[in-house]
From TrEMBL:
Name the record gives this protein: Fructose-1,6-bisphosphate aldolase
Highest classification ranks of the organism: Bacteria, Pseudomonadati, Pseudomonadota, Alphaproteobacteria, Hyphomicrobiales
Domain of life: Bacteria
Protein keywords: Calvin cycle, Glycolysis, Lyase, Metal-binding, Zinc
CDD domains in the record: TBP_aldolase_IIB
Enzyme class (EC, first level): lyase
């Protein structure tokens, strides 16, 4: 059944677990998330970025979600707009049947320029009014998570995004977070702890100097009831890097956010954990393997099927690790 983000996160807070939110652009990805949720008896959050909506088309995407609700009636499903950049994006998502929207006012409408606090509060509050009237939830963001557009312009290996700005400019300020929540009435708050989107987050295994988990602890101390969201939380598993590279891929060595760090975040109020890159890697690794091993293969089902199964395994691992298994 279709549920709001607020409904899912309230239950997650009550029982102390986190829910992975997986990005989807294709039918295979929607099915992978739902199969994993069913296998684990876990609630599901599928989220679509603006690019995902453009790729699939709003009507196609909305009907795939309708189909997921009908095919998996026992799985609570939240359909979420990832990184909405303005009111119009959030309004059209609600129109398309999304039950939750992210208004990312940490950046200006172009999705790359850091915004000031006043702009962020004003635009987020307008979206909260709009969404709450429609019975939907809102996620806001305070602090800077390495931007996608920025990353696309990085050097090939992407490393260095984390060095560009000072920690004070990037990390969420706990005092400001309290004010932001009071002034916007968001249902969930995305915070910045030093990670960035995509595969190339860190050039070594992140430790306390790189990943600012104390920010989460401090925000949780001041607002124990607030649902926190960790973005850019792919773990970028070594096995998937190796699988891709063994079959013709070229990924320079890289580190993501370790699952143990996410588990620590969940102890301090993180309830939604955004994962896209790991899913992309699981699918790409499997497609590369099948095509390398069967160069004569022409049937997309013979590589998209295994890719879908690989993504479902990844999703199951995250449901288990975050404590969402058995919570549907
Ligand atoms: O937040 C970002 C997601 O990884 C979506 O990426 O804009 O390429 O669909 P995308
Ligand atoms: P990753 O690139 O780490 O998967 O992050 C996804 C994300 O934060 C989507 O909003
Ligand atoms: Zn994100």
């Amino acid at each position: 059944a279709r549920v709001t983000l607020r409904q899912l996160l309230d239950d997650a807070a009550e029982h102390g677990y986190g829910i992975p939110a997986f990005n989807v652009s294709t039918m295979e990805q929607v099915i992978a998330v739902m199969e994993a949720a069913r296998a684990c008896d876990a609630p599901a959050i599928v989220q679509a970025s603006r690019r995902a909506r453009r790729y699939a088309g709003d009507i196609m995407l909305a009907r795939m979600i309708d189909a997921a609700v009908e095919t998996y009636p026992d799985i609570p499903l939240c359909v979420h707009q990832d990184h909405g950049n303005d009111e119009e994006t959030c309004a059209s998502a609600l129109q398309a049947g999304f039950t939750s929207v992210m208004m990312d006012g940490s950046l200006r409408e172009d999705g790359r320029t850091p915004a000031d606090y006043a702009y962020n509060v004003a635009v987020t509050r307008r979206v909260v009014d709009l969404a709450h009237r429609a019975g939907a939830s809102v996620e806001g963001e305070l602090g800077l998570v390495g931007s996608l557009e920025g990353l696309e312009n990085e050097a090939e290996d992407g490393h260095g995004a984390e060095d560009a700005l000072s920690p004070e400019q990037v990390l969420t300020d706990p005092d400001e977070a309290v004010r932001f929540v009071r002034e916007t009435k968001v249902d969930a708050l995305a915070i910045a702890v030093g990670t960035s989107h995509g595969a190339y987050k860190f050039s070594r295994k992140p430790d306390g100097a790189i990943l600012a988990m104390q920010v989460i602890k401090e925000i949780n101390r001041r607002m124990p009831a607030m649902h926190l969201v960790m973005h850019a939380s792919s773990s970028v598993p070594r096995e998937l890097q190796d699988l891709i590279n063994r079959h013709g891929g070229e990924m320079p060595q890289t580190w993501g956010v370790p699952v143990e760090e996410i588990q620590l975040g969940i102890r301090y109020g993180v309830r939604k954990v955004n994962i896209d890159t790991d899913c992309r890697m699981a699918m790409t690794g499997e497609i590369r393997r099948v095509l390398a091993q069967s160069p004569g293969e022409l049937d997309p089902r013979r590589y998209l099927g295994p890719a879908r199964a690989a993504m479902a395994r990844l999703c199951r691992d995250r449901y288990e690790a975050f404590g969402a298994a058995g919570r549907a």
